[in-house]
Amino acid sequence: DELKDDEEYEDILEDIQEECNRYGRVKSMEIPRPKVGEEVPGVGKIFVEFETKVCALKAQMALSGRKFSNRVVMTSFYDPEKYQTRVFA
To answer: Could you give the C-alpha distances from 15 to 11, 20, 79, in angstroms and in order?
Structure first.
């Protein structure tokens, strides 16, 4: 429900961006949003692209297992080509 509300969605983007920037420069980020009557792949996931792999590794180690909005953060690397073409799963 938080992802459906534009204001709450912007707050989430800002919070994630701020937190992730602690580990290195964030190049881009995608948070798929639900749409009425349509199944949107990747809803409930956050995709973050860091400037370097080292930054991504630092973020992964720091964020895995933490809680965000009553959910436990689970991290993994995602196929760069799929990310670039916005194919989320």
So the answer is: 6, 9, 24
Q: What is the pLDDT of residues 48-71, one digit of tens each?
A: 999 999 999 999 999 999 998 788
Alpha carbon distance 52, 42 (integer Å): 23
Residue 7 has pLDDT above 90, yes or no: yes
> Residue type for 38, please?
E
pLDDT attached to residue 1: 76
